[in-house]
Design goal:
about 325 residues, nine-stranded mixed beta sheet
Length: about 325
């Protein structure tokens, strides 16, 4: 295996790590996700501070997804669905199933990841009745088992470093409509790409999608003591945050969108999200699940992760959305 392939394999492994953390939080009652357990072969109980961080990450992502679907769907006609969600580097994320359970799907939902990841996800979905029953009736297995295709949901194999030349054309083939309001989701994905590659993803969205929004969740602050330690710990596992120094702060993660002419961009770190945007009642509920005595450590860790929500131009859909709005 060459160095590039080896590095890709290590990055792919982060999807399993994220699934294990999410399953831990779900099993203990931090989050309501009955589907993630199907994607985890060897469950592990994470430390309380990791479970607490997983809750805030999950809460923020689901908040934006639900806001988007509420804006694009007709409240009086469940058959009148609009909009698209594209999950970049989706891994074992279960958001499609969570939205389906709530009858809150947009018209189309796409998930993109390396073929090795999508093949594993497709196989798990197809052999698990609780997941398969939630797929559209017209679902078909494709690409030798690495993809799932239907009019409303598609699991697509692709390398985001080739987004404009390979991934985007495949999405269009499978029904992606550049005229539809579209929300892109990227959780700890673009930051693993060289900036020249992640910037090309955003450039394609800017040039081609009429109304686009994006929610990213990524690491920040590489230059303080904790940030340097975070980088070294990841490097010891063979992981490089290739985009971190290009966009190292809350301001710069927002500015990368504004510099492309996007209408709005705002960022909030996970510590602030937990303290100000998770309700007091919810924080009290979490405290009853597990005692967290590492508050300073949690806050320090959470300050090094951030949500950024941005959208390209004014529209009724995205104007009504905000990471700070419940």
């Amino acid at each position: 295996m060459d160095a590039g392939a080896s590095g890709d394999a290590v990055v792919q492994g982060t999807s399993s790590d994220a699934a294990v953390s999410r399953e831990s939080a779900a099993r203990l009652g931090y989050i309501d996700d009955p589907y993630i357990r199907h994607f985890v072969k060897r469950p592990q109980r994470r430390a309380p501070l990791i479970n607490r961080g997983t809750h805030s990450r999950f809460d923020g992502v689901q908040r934006i997804l639900r806001q988007f679907v509420a804006q694009v769907n007709s409240p009086s006609d469940s058959d009148c669905r609009r909009g698209q969600i594209v999950n970049l580097g989706a891994g074992m994320d279960t958001s499609y199933f969570l939205l389906k359970r709530l009858d809150m799907l947009p018209r189309r939902f796409f998930e993109v990841d390396f073929a090795e990841i999508t093949a594993r996800k497709a196989a798990t979905i197809c052999r698990t009745p609780q997941l398969k029953m939630l797929l559209p009736d017209d679902i078909k297995v494709a690409a030798g088992g690495a993809e799932l295709h239907s009019a409303g949901y598609a699991l697509v194999a692709g390398d985001l470093r080739e987004f404009a030349t390979q991934v985007a054309p495949r999405l269009v083939e499978l029904g992606f409509d550049v005229a539809e309001p579209t929300l892109f989701l990227s959780e700890c994905v673009l930051i693993y790409l060289e900036p020249r590659h992640s910037d090309k993803v955003l450039d394609w969205i800017t040039a081609n999608v009429r109304y686009a929004g994006i929610l990213t969740y990524e690491q920040i602050l590489p230059d303080n003591r904790f940030g340097r330690m975070m980088i070294e710990n990841l490097r010891a596992r063979g992981l490089e945050l290739r985009g971190l120094h290009a966009y190292p702060t809350l301001q710069s993660t927002s500015q990368r969108f504004l510099d492309r002419g996007w209408h709005s961009a705002a960022a909030v770190d996970l510590a602030t999200y937990h303290e100000e945007l998770v309700s007091e009642a919810e924080r009290a509920r979490l405290a009853r699940i597990e005692f967290l005595d590492e508050w300073e450590e949690f806050r320090l860790l959470a300050q090094h992760y951030a949500f950024t929500f941005a959208f390209t131009k004014q529209s009724p859909v995205f104007d009504a959305m905000s990471i700070e709005r419940a």
